[in-house]
TrEMBL record:
GO molecular function: phospho-N-acetylmuramoyl-pentapeptide-transferase activity
Subcellular location per the Swiss-Prot or TrEMBL entry: Membrane
NCBIfam families per the UniProt record, alphabetical: mraY
GO BP: cell wall macromolecule biosynthetic process; cell wall organization
Name of protein: Unannotated protein
Length: 352
């Protein structure tokens, strides 16, 4: 527990104070946000706000995690290192996308196809490595069995397991990316989900088969260290939210949103709660589905729309809701979704 607190505190301090310095650097170099002309007109005032804040998010989380281990003398675990590798790789994809936008001064970075292929390749490497590195009890970071609130008896096999991880990572990273449209929205919702992963990791460690063998115990390779990693991300997001809340002084950009989504998917996979990511990240799911519904209906109806604009948060903007009102109400939805996910997780334990 001490290591969890240390990781969260260090990440929060680095993010809180480091973001201020990053804002100055980005503003001096003119690396500002490019606003699409077809978006809500109220967003035009945000043009030029420093972007690529995901740099400090990733740096704070990685540093917090590593320093927590250095200060406590505990060893790094394969599971957490793999998740960190996934986060950094996705962050680099997002950084390249952000860099192209600010250097061209257009809201056109990587094409959708290029971004999806890059994410898929990174996720495939993560999944392929995750089903290796068995410990002395033959546990690998990622299971070959499908997991809901815990590992199920449904065997996937190596190929399907990796394909499933690819789908998870791409869905989560793009889901956070779509939610990152209003000041503080994605950051605040991410904090809640990372906090849930801390609780899940600690609980799985306390009830692990290695400590208290019996019916209902959890067979997860490195649950406590994954809780430390989740704490580092929660701390980093909290510090960043200080500057990202409305009116935002900096945006995380694709650098941050792709990385955070990858972290959520990676933690869900390694903690053996893959399907539980749906309720835990309920807000991201809702926002993503609004885009899917809008796109499908537009094509099927010959140009008609369900929403005034997708993603969903922009629909409410065009209805006249204030940005802060939307963010707070969406945070409430995110909190309720996390509560539902944790409720399902612990309810399963009670039944057992």
């Amino acid at each position: 527990m001490r290591q969890i607190l240390i990781a969260a505190a260090i990440a929060l301090l680095i993010s809180l104070f480091g973001t201020r310095g990053l804002i100055k650097i980005l503003a001096t170099r003119g690396y500002g946000q490019i606003i699409r002309d077809d978006g809500p007109s109220s967003h035009h005032t945000k043009r030029g706000t420093p972007t690529m804040g995901g740099i400090i998010l990733i740096t704070a989380a990685v540093t917090g995690y590593l320093l927590a281990h250095a200060l406590t003398g505990n060893s790094l675990t394969v599971s957490a290192v793999l998740v960190l590798g996934l986060v950094i790789a996705l962050g680099l994809i997002g950084f390249f996308d952000d860099w192209l936008k600010v250097s061209r001064q257009k809201s056109l970075g990587l094409t959708g196809k290029q971004k999806l292929i890059s994410q898929g390749l990174v996720a495939a490497v993560f999944g392929s490595l995750g089903i290796r590195f068995a410990d002395t009890t033959s546990l690998t970071p990622i299971s070959l069995y499908l997991s809901g609130v815990r590992e199920t008896a449904l065997y996937l096999g190596a190929f399907i397991a990796v394909a499933w991880i690819v789908l998870m990572v791409m869905s989560a990273s793009n889901g956070v990316n779509l939610a990152d449209g209003l000041d503080g929205l994605a950051t605040g919702a991410s904090v809640m989900t990372f906090l849930a992963f801390i609780l899940i990791g600690v609980w799985e460690f306390g009830q692990s088969c290695a400590i208290s063998a019996g019916s209902g115990c959890y067979q997860v390779r490195d649950p406590l260290d994954l809780a430390v990693l989740a704490a580092a991300f929660a701390g980093a997001c909290t510090g960043f939210l200080w500057w990202n809340a409305s009116p935002a002084k900096i945006f995380m950009g694709d650098t941050g949103s792709l990385a955070l989504g990858g972290a959520l998917a990676g933690l869900a996979a390694t903690l053996r709660v893959e399907l539980l990511l749906i309720p835990l990240g309920g807000l991201f799911v809702i926002i993503t589905m609004s885009v899917v519904i809008q796109t499908l209906y537009f094509k099927m109806s010959g140009g008609k729309r369900v929403f005034k604009m997708a993603p969903l948060q922009h629909h409410f903007e065009l209805l006249g809701w204030g940005e802060v009102t939307i963010v707070i109400r969406f945070w409430i939805i995110a909190g309720l979704s996390v509560a539902l996910g944790l409720g399902l997780f612990y309810a399963q334990w009670v039944v057992k």
